[in-house]
Amino acid sequence: MKSLFSIAEIRKIEHSLAETLPPGTLMQRAGEAAASAARAMLSGRKILLLAGPGNNGGDALEAAAILAGPDTDLDAEVTVLHRPGSAPPSPETQKALARARASKAHFVDALPLGRDWSLIVDGLFGIGLARPIEGDMRALVEAINALGRPVLALDVPSGLDADTGAVIGPDGVAIQATRTITFIGNKPGLHTFEGRDYAGQVQVAPLGIDPGQRPPAGARLNEPALFARHLAPRRHNSHKGSFGDVAVIGGARGMAGAPLLSARAALFAGAGRVFVAAIEPVGAVDFVHPEIMLRDAQDFDSGAATLVMGPGMGDSVTAMRVLFKALEGKAALVLDADALNLIADSPDLQGRLAQREAPAIVTPHPLEAARLLGVTSAVVQGDRLAAARELASRLHAVVVLKGSGTVIADADGAVAINPTGNAGLATAGSGDVLAGICGSLLAQGWEPREAALGAVWVHGAAADRLVAHGSGPIGLTAGELPAAARAVLNALAR
Ligand SMILES: NC(=O)C1=CN([C@@H]2O[C@H](COP(=O)(O)OP(=O)(O)OC[C@H]3O[C@@H](n4cnc5c(N)ncnc54)[C@H](OP(=O)(O)O)[C@@H]3O)[C@@H](O)[C@H]2O)[C@@H](O)CC1
Ligand SMILES: [K+]
Question: InterPro entries attached here (predicted)?
């Protein structure tokens, strides 16, 4: 189970464990896990450990005591930069300090000159960081980042909010880690917003706690197990009607590419029949994919098709009219881009969406989510999980909040963060492709939540596949994604 625990949930677990384990046990285990992770990363002889004022510093001191202790067989120079706070450290941190002082570790008060550290271990702040890092601590973080050496962060890169993935600010700083070893359970902030960039590779050290002993977490990482039941091999005796119809509605003047990209994605993700109903007619045929049927949105009868509304749709009277009609109807809906902006401007449409019975997936980027919630995009990004949850509950829909570590939330409050994808997806049309895959999976009978989880996972994995083959992240184009998504889906189905 790929659980993601909030800081409050971790504190609760810590609290209940404190009643059964001897004092200091968890810090000792964290120190041991940190020391082995450091050894695994080490190529060279010089290790610098940064130990801050709290228990995160205690973990680093325990690790130093092990790496430079009497039982070590490690041939390395261990240096500790310890920054005590104004308040006395916890008893377990005091013990760790005494053990580190008694070891061969060399203590310094300031960052030594030179940049030849083989490894830097960041134990400045963990989940107890309550305000931005300032003053000489800020200077230290900036100096460490400027060295550009491999960094192992303990629990969370110092400066990053483990709940939200935001650097604690305004104008805050955080340690740029190569790898993060996080304790007891994984944390959402390491996987979304700025978290993926700051945490690097994430490794979980459960500290001897059986996952079954932990209470259920409020969030989780997305993975194929969450939607794989829909990926059964196709029966020989099937026909195009077995895989549903998708109609993409969009394409104002000059924006014909957006619905065509969505439609191609729907086709490549396996929908039986795909239409584009264009606001401004685009022509008789898509010569690249003549399978796609082109229609005029004004007089299009979508029948039982799943509707993907919004790609390049604009805000004309026609756009408004087809959106209104769709919200009145009973079709399963994917709402993206301009459809979301029109809904954001109209409390009436928001109410209609919330009251519909049929499934709906909405796929906002942070600015679209902000408009829907009536806040700024900084507020949305400041707590992406909360924003997605709030929107899902208000609109009574599955919400896909796009961005690094896309968040998928449903109206029941379940939240997942997607681990696939890369910077190549920050390109025009990539959202149109995602909406098309969502619509395709819905049309094939997937439950809305699973369709959203599956589409987001596959879309990200398609980009990862393209990057692995050299087609990105620089210059990756949205038009390449549908074929890569098809390959990912078929690989999953096998
Ligand atoms: N949970 C668990 O089960 C386990 C937890 N473990 C470890 O403990 C970590 C949490 O420890 P923690 O609670 O002591 O907090 P931590 O992150 O060290 O920082 C707090 C200190 O920093 C200070 N401070 C805060 N902000 C500041 C600022 N901007 N600038 C300067 N100072 C600032 C603050 O002082 P104050 O706010 O009182 O001034 C306080 O002294 C956790 O991440 C994990 O590594 C493991 O040992 C094993 C099991
Ligand atoms: K840290």
Answer: CARKD, Nnr, Ribokinase-like, YjeF_N_dom, YjeF_N_dom_sf
